[in-house]
Amino acid sequence: MHVAADPYPFAFEIASTALLVIDMQRDFLEPGGFGAALGNDVTLLRRAIGPNQTLLAAWRAAAGLVIHTREGHRPDLADLHPAKHRRAAAGPRIGEAGPMGRILVRGEPGHDLIADLAPLPGEPVVDKPGKGAFYATDLHSILAARGIVRLIVTGVTTEVCVSTTVREANDRGYDCLVLEDCCGSYFPGFHTAALQMIAAQSGIFGWVGHSGALLDALGTRQPTAPAGGGRA
Ligand code: TIU
Q1: Among 41, 71, 158, which is best to mutate for testing ligand 1, by the most ligand atoms less than 8 A from CB?
Q2: Average pLDDT of 145-158?
Q3: Is 128 a catalytic residue?
Q4: pLDDT of residue 92
Q5: Using CA atoms, how far apart are residues 152 and 178, in angstroms rounded to an integer?
Q6: How many CB atoms lie under 10 A from the CB of residue 222?
Q7: 23 classed as catalytic
């Protein structure tokens, strides 16, 4: 199967490919969350929700593996580096009370995935203390156990956790396709640049495409309704 992508079509088989949805958490995406409390425009991230929903439905219908990640820490913060803690000092810090519970702490409401993209039973959810999904997690083992060699990557934010994960995956031998409409950043310029960096130099970190092209490859894109919606 092939998907139109930059710098050239991405070839994959569903059985050896996972859809990896990065950090679609309430604190990053909801208007009352931590990201919004820092003054960020969450609509820039929320526009990725609809395309992810459509993609998840198609990928699940094709029996593809879905893996979700969440960024966050143990309630005792024992896995939080002092460096990460210090550099979050501009706003409320990790572990402090935020609008939806303690910020980036596992088990708190804001740490959870948004309801629109809730995992189904059986879909692994990987909790990660860093920006990359491979650092200090069992993601690599989960993928290896299932014979996964390619990743379709979506989520937030494009230049932080999505990019870091793609770079980590690249060094571990995975081919990654990043879907631009299914990612988002609080900084539109960073979103664009991060995607360009992935596909530049003959795909130095991977491929960049659009979810519509993947739906086409899966044969699940619905034809657009004719104007006026009338019947013949
Ligand atoms: N998931 C993720 O990207 N975590 C961040 O902290 N992103 C920011 O853009 N700050």
Answers
A1: 71
A2: 98
A3: yes
A4: 81
A5: 6
A6: 7
A7: yes
Count of CB atoms within 10 A of residue 149's CB?
14
Query: Among 201, 65, 188, 79, which Cα is nearest to 130's?
Result: 79
Q: Which two tokens stand for residue 89?
A: 């000092």
Return the residue matching tokens 């081919």. Answer: 175
CA–CA distance from 170 to each of 76, 126, 205 (Å)? 32, 18, 6
Q: Where are the alpha helices (DSSP H) in the chain?
A: 26-29, 34-37, 43-46, 49-61, 82-87, 139-145, 163-171, 188-203, 211-218
Average pLDDT score over residue span 95-110: 96
Q: Which residues line ligand 1 (CB under 6 A)?
A: 23, 71, 156-157, 160-161
pLDDT for position 225: 60
CA distance 95 to 93: 6
Q: Which two tokens stand for residue 63?
A: 């029996």
- Tokens encoding 32: 């009352």
Question: 165 near 194, Cβ under 8 Å?
Answer: no
**Catalytic residue, candidates 6, 27, 131, 161:** 161
Percent of the chain's residues with pLDDT above 90: 88
Residue 223 has pLDDT above 70, yes or no: no
Decide: pTM greater than 0.85: yes
Report which of 221, 225, 180, 185 is spatially closest to residue 198, judged by C-alpha positions.
180
Pairing mode, if any, of strands 10-11 and 17-22? Answer: unpaired
Domains of the chain: 2-218 (3.40.50.850)
Task: Provide the 8-state DSSP code for 113.
Answer: B
